[in-house]
UniProtKB/TrEMBL annotation:
PROSITE patterns: DHHC. Residues 152-311 form the Palmitoyltransferase DHHC domain. The lineage of its organism: Eukaryota, Metazoa, Chordata, Craniata, Vertebrata. One of its GO terms (cellular component) is membrane. Its main location: membrane. This is Palmitoyltransferase. The DHHC domain is required for palmitoyltransferase activity. The chain crosses the membrane at residues 76-99, 111-131, 196-213, 277-299. It is a multi-pass membrane protein.
Length: 382
């Protein structure tokens, strides 16, 4: 009997359908197949092209860890914001209810005017810049087609990336002139809110240092008072209980209570001293930590860099140094011009109206393109 090619093809098709139907009955659950497909993708990504290096391998291996950290940070952002508001509000309550009456009763009129004016100015600057930093969009590259120049394509967004634009895994989108994602703001720090973030750090540091220095003597007095209260508690006079009464808490025969005099301090006194100690410790700790962060960002601004730019520029310097060349940061316009571009200072009066007073003016440029020396050096003489 002759076997036609058509019959052989039909036989193979029927066998394949039977095999697939049997395999479909024993198919793994959907969630397990998704995990398996994801793991296969991670393994395949280790050798996806000839440009694979140690950084690509590291990112691929630790991708689940990065995803977990981004997920947790994204959902805990509101917790961090509430923590900032609660801690700052607690310091304000102590300042108005405890410290302000002491200042009004003990300081001279000149010092009272200084503390009230400086304290409220610092408070306004902190509140304004924190709100603007948390609520202002950092800036995003356009999603529609345009003729803007770009330097690369985001491998996660699959969209063109302008210069100094980077992808944020927590926000899950690209950010213009990205510096970092700040969990205390629950927002990315980018082109349009970088100045608000730095100003908040600066004025919060100044406020903490102000509270720490002006409250140092109050802290020492409060600490000494609490130690004195402890000694008074240990030295309370009274009728001793002896024998079995000491074990079971009985009083001597005919005695109904201890004849112990009232303490020389009240519960209010104790809470006032504890609140002063709490304020001094918190402001001193935050002042040191946040002050170090503020100084670091000030150094980066003086160099015309962001936190991410610093790592990129460091690698470029090392790469060109191997070729005997010197790398120059194209966004470094000089220290003074870097600060003028960052703060939006265009004339002398802006140092007051845009730096020392709350100002919502936008930053220089649109964050998509960057010019060389955009500020004339003769605007403000060095």
């Amino acid at each position: 009997m002759r076997c036609s090619p058509g019959s052989v093809l039909n036989l193979l098709r029927s066998g394949r359908m039977r095999f697939c139907s049997r395999r479909g009955k024993s198919r793994l659950p959907l969630w397990l197949r998704k995990i398996w497909a994801y793991m296969r993708l991670l393994v395949q990504s280790l050798c996806f092209n000839t440009l694979t290096d140690s950084d690509v391998v590291f990112d691929s291996i630790f991708e689940p860890v990065f995803w977990t950290v981004d997920y947790v940070t994204r959902w805990f952002g509101l917790v961090f914001v509430c923590l900032v508001v609660i801690l700052t509000s607690s310091i304000l309550v102590i300042a108005y209810m405890v410290l302000l009456p002491l200042v009004l009763n003990t300081y001279s009129p000149a010092w009272i005017a200084w503390h009230i004016c400086y304290g409220h100015w610092n408070l306004i600057m902190i509140a304004f810049h924190y709100y603007k930093a948390a609520k202002t969009s950092p800036g995003y590259p356009p999603t529609e087609k345009n003729d803007r120049p770009f330097v690369s394509v985001c491998k996660k967004c699959i969209m063109p990336k302008p210069a100094r634009t980077h992808h944020c895994g927590i926000c899950n989108r690209c950010i213009l002139k990205m510096d970092h994602h700040c969990p205390w703001l629950n927002n990315c720090v980018g082109h349009f809110n970088h100045r608000y973030f730095f100003s908040f750090c600066l004025f919060m540091t100044l406020g903490c240092v102000y509270c720490s220095i002006s409250g140092r003597n109050l802290f020492l007095d409060a600490y000494s008072a609490l130690e004195r209260f402890k000694h008074l508690d240990l030295e309370k006079p009274g009728i001793p209980v002896t024998g079995m009464g000491l074990l079971i808490g009985l009083l001597p025969s005919g005695q109904t209570n201890f004849h112990t005099p009232a303490p020389s301090y009240t519960f209010k006194d104790r809470m006032i001293h504890k609140s002063i100690i709490y304020m001094w410790v918190l402001t001193s700790t935050v002042g040191v930590a946040l002050g170090a962060l503020t100084v670091w960002h000030a150094v980066l601004i003086s160099r015309g860099e962001t936190s991410i730019d610093r790592h990129i520029n460091k690698k470029e310097r090392q790469r060109l140094a191997a070729w005997g060349k010197v790398y120059r940061n194209p966004f470094n316009y000089g220290k003074l011009n870097n600060w003028k571009v960052f703060l939006g200072v265009e004339k002398r009066s802006h140092w007051v109206t845009r730096v020392l007073l709350p100002s919502g003016h936008p930053p220089y440029g649109d964050g998509l393109t960057w010019d060389i020396f955009p500020v004339r050096k003769d605007l403000i003489p060095v």
